[in-house]
Amino acid sequence: MSAGLAPEDADLGAQLPRGRHRLPRVYVRQNQEDRLFAATIATVAARGYDETTVSDIVAAARLSRRTFYQRFANKSACFVATHELIAAHLGEAADVATAETPDWAARTAASIAAALAAFEANPDLARFLLAAPLRADAPEPADAYRRFLACAAGRLCETAPVELAASPRLAEALLAGLASVVVDCVDSEGAEGLRPLAPRLSSWFVIGLRQIEATGS
Amino acid sequence: MSRPAAPLPQALRPLQEVGRGEVRPQRVDDPHRQRDRLLRAATSLFGERGYRHVTTNDLAADAGLSLGTVYSFFDDKRDCLLAAYDLIVEEARGRIAARIPAGLPRRPLVEAAIAALLDEIAADPAAARLVFVVAQTAGAEGAARHRRTLATAGAALRVKGAADLPDGFEDVAVAAAAFLLTSSLLEGMPDTSSLQAELRALLLPAPTRGDLGPGPALAASGHQGR
Question: What is the pTM of this model?
Fold first, then answer.
């Protein structure tokens, strides 16, 4: 994992020494990028998209506005890139978790558990990925969220038994329903409540798909 | 263009005329009706433009009231939006409940509720957008309203309990249905008949599952609930 998704990265400790140092340029750039993403996640998770400004992000990352604008055209581009980074990480984590699991239901359970493990390590990832887009009064975050749902639903249904090949729209809605339970859990119980949720989430997804299929949609 | 002379305000008339003659407009336009007008303005403006692009000035202008009057009813535009949300949900709930005959079993009851909800949405798309799209974007309180509405719907579905659904699935199904409505409203005027089929698929337990028994995938998952 190259970019920083761990919460500690937003801490001041991650900032490089001031003034002259012998750190290689590529390392400095990577460190700046990590801090930019981690600060975006932490700030948006805490304040929401609408209330977050580029100034907030660069202040949290301890970077200059110039560094921000070298990387992103504006706040929404930064949000979308960060959203895609988290989504890609969850995809990779699911690949690793399912590498040796041929059974579809077990793969679904392992993918969902892998996502929950990431959210447990940093609950702001769940807030950013699943809660912030619907609470944003702007189209870009909502679009990024729908792309994520479509991609995740596609992955989960890809190898599903033929009789469970539900309409993609309904599979996405079902995932959004699961996401809403995850967000409620993070909001009310915090990260500790997530792990016990894993078996129920995957069972709900499987049962939801069966239900959709059986109703004939 | 010649206009009739503006009538003197009450305070500037001869003392003996004050409070006589025509009724003061403020008394015709009683506070209840003003508040009602404001909530209707809020419903159409927020529903059409979203939260950020409406100001209290817009609300005042649309309702034909002064900004001061707006602030006499509401602390700010969020307060006004939340009041409009509560009114829409309360009225819609009443109308939907009135359309559902008492004592229906679960399946026809949920079907009737879905049909009634979709009629509500078709009758006032701006109000539907306020409830399903805009409220969530209006800060923590708006998001909390949305969550509460979903929780109420999930509980209603649970009361009508289907024993063949796992514990907690109702909340997932309701949140999934709400997401479908949100997406459809964002995309424009939803196609009611396909939405109806989708909502049924999410909210109604599959009728044939008992006959078929659990399929291989479900059996393998090992989490059928109870």
Answer: 0.82
